[in-house]
Amino acid sequence: MAATKELLFTYGTLRKGESNPMQRYLENNAEWIAKATFQGKLYFADGHPAATPTTDENSQILGDLFEFDESSGLLQELDRYEAYRPANPEKSLYLRKKRKVSLKESNEICDAWIYIYNRPVDNATPIPSGDYAQFSKG
């Protein structure tokens, strides 16, 4: 029986090219597919990149799309990293949700897992470009 493939959209410290142990773990257990965008607003909140969904079609977050085997245990590792507690979502720093993302080159729409920030962003620093990599290196 073939393994079920899943997609993950990353926009912060897990993006391709970032240098940290969990990003390396992701790259060792998933295949990078393409650059992609998510309709949302990006912030820097309490030391973390923070994505929130929006209805504003002009507000896009740039990120990377990875494909992985559902049975790999990758999501459980990432849940710990992102402080997502499936049994206690209200206490989670992020919520893992399946959302529509658009491949940057082809505009193809697909469903991917994304970690949505689960705290208020009132005092967070907006990242108007939607590109955490550019923000963190600037």
TrEMBL record:
SUPFAM superfamilies reported in the protein's UniProt record: Gamma-glutamyl cyclotransferase-like
Pfam families membership: GGACT
Domain Gamma-glutamylcyclotransferase AIG2-like, residue spans: 8-133
Keyword Transferase attributed: yes
Keyword Transferase: yes
Keyword list, A-Z: Transferase
GO MF annotations in UniProt: transferase activity
Domain of life: Bacteria
Protein's recorded name: Gamma-glutamylcyclotransferase
Organism per entry: Halalkalibaculum roseum
